[in-house]
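User: I'll paste a sequence; please echo it back and then give the predicted structure.

Assistant: Echoing your sequence first, then the prediction.
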Amino acid sequence: MTEPAFGWSEGIATAALVVSLLTAYRQHALNKVLLDQANAADAALKRARVSAKLVDDGRGFRLRVFNNGPAIARNVTLDFSECADLLDTEDIDDKLPLDMEPHQSVSLLALVTFGTQSKYKLTLRWDDDSGKGNSAPVYVTI
């Protein structure tokens, strides 16, 4: 009696090989996802988040520029060409550009009168460890 060319032991070995290959593929895919998440978290730690809001501190309105990110924001500047009547240019020239530590803020004098618009667009620009030339448009309202 001749033995079959492909018996039970070969079938089990083939099934084990297929399971092993599938497990290796899934492990590779999982490692890639974990590596991407680690890289994204690392990149987030290098980014400053600079923003601004108009606040009434009881003595008048101020534009508060702040860094809520985990990284230092360097060379923070403000493009206020669309709202030149809102801000005191001398105060801006005295305080900006500025390097801002995480959770640091700076207050700029705002000139709010009865004829002041209710909404203004500003553009904040800064450099951080993630790169140079970062910018964010900010809309402030009264």
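The beta strands are 50-56, 61-67, 73-79, 98-100, 105-109, 119-128, 131-141. The longest strand covers residues 131-141.
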